[in-house]
Design brief:
5-stranded parallel beta sheet
Length: about 450
Amino acid sequence: MPLSYASTSASSAPARRVIVWLRHDLRLHDHENFATLGGLVEEVLPVYVFDPREFAPDRFIGAPKTGPHRAAFLRETVLDLQARLRAIGSDLYVAHGPPETVLPDLAQQFGATEVRATREHTSEEIAVEQAVEKALRPVARLRLTEGLLLHHPDDLPIRLADLPLGFSKFRLQVEKKLRVRAIFAPTNALPAYPVRLGAGAVPTLAALTGHPDAEDAAEIDPRTAHPFRGGETAALARLEDYIHGRRLLGTYKQTRNGLVGEAFSSKLSAWLANGALSPRQVYAEVRRYEARHGANDSTYWLLFELLWRDFFRLVALRVGTAIFRPDGLRGQAPRPHQRPDRALFDRWTQGRTGEPFVDAAIRELRLTGWTSNRMRQNVASYLINTLRLDWRWGAAWFESRLVDYDPCSNWANWQYLAGTGTDAREGRAFDIRQQARAYDPQGAYQRYWAG
C-alpha cells in the first residue's frame, strides 16, 4: 500500500512568522509557498536542511545515496538560492540534521506557527513529511502544497487509485483533458528575514559526503555533454538559450538521441530534479516558442516527456514502496533470472565489461555524473539481460551517480526495462551491437570515452 500524504493542520488564524522548508523546490520562480505568503506575515525564514540520510550508504550496494557529482550540483544550487534570496533582502537558513529534529527546534526558537513545504511523492520523502508533521504538532502546523508536477493531481480526470500502470492507457485517458495551471510570478520581495537567527554556512563537499577527497571526486571531465552548474540562475539561462536563443527546441525530436555535445537535448533534467526549475516554467516557454515560431513534433515531444515525468511521479505516489521491490508493481519475477555476482557488477560500474558501447557510457557517467537517456537504456538492458544482475543494483548505482537523479523516473525506468514495472511486456532487451550501429555508426562516441 502507498504511504499517504502527510496531513496538514487547519487553523483560521494567519501566521505572523512562517518557515518555508525547501527540499526539491530550490527556486524563486513559480513557487507557491513564497508567492502566497500574504501581507499579514511579518517574518519568513527560508530553510534548507541537509539530511545526512540522503548521503548515507544505500541498502542495495552500499554506495552513497548522493554521490560526488550530484552533491556538488546540489551544493551549487543551494549556494545560488542563498545568493538570490540575499539579492531581494532575505536569506537562506542552512541546517544539517534530520528535518523532524531541526524544524521543530527552529520553529520554537523563531516563534513560527506555520511551516510550509512542497509535497513529495515517494515513500522515503513522504515518511519524512509525516515525521516532521508529528514533531511539529506542539509548536506549528505543516502546510503542504503541490509544486513538483506539471499537472496538479487535483486536476486529473481520474482518481489516483484508478491510475493505470501503463503509460499508453494513462495518456489516452488524460492527455486531452488535462490543463496546466498558471505559473506563480517570480518572487522579488519577501517579508523580513529574522537576522537574529543568522543563516548558517553551506557545508563543504567533504563535510557533506564525509570524504576528504570529495572535491577531486566531483571534478567533471571536460568532455562532458552536461557542462552546467547547479542553481536557478543557470537553469533559467539554459532554458532561455535552448528554447529562444539558439532555438534548439525546434529540432529536439530529431536530435534527442545524440550522444556527444550539449546541444542535442535540452539537458534540463538536473534542474527539474532538484527543483531549481519548474516544469510549468518549461511548459510556458515552450508555448511562448510555439506562439512565435509555430508548433511541431519537437515542441510536442518535450511536453510529451514532461507528461511521462508526471506519470512516473503519480505511479510512485499510488504504489508507494512497490517501485523498489524486485517483483515490481505486479508481483512478477524479473526476467531473466538474476544472479548475485558482485564482481561482475563491479566491472560494469567501472566500464570494464568488454562491450565498448556499454563501457563508453559507464565511463561517461562515472566521470561526469551524466549520460544520455539512450545510453541509460542500453547500459540498463545490458546489466539486466546480458549480465543477468539484480536491476536494483543498477538503479542504486544510478541514484548515486546521476546528477539528475529523480527517484520516480530512475526506479520506474529500471523496473520498466526489467519487465516488472509500468509495462510488463516481454522483449525489453536491447541488441547492444545494433544500437551501436544505429546511434554511433562511426564509433565516435566509443572513441570519445575510450581513454
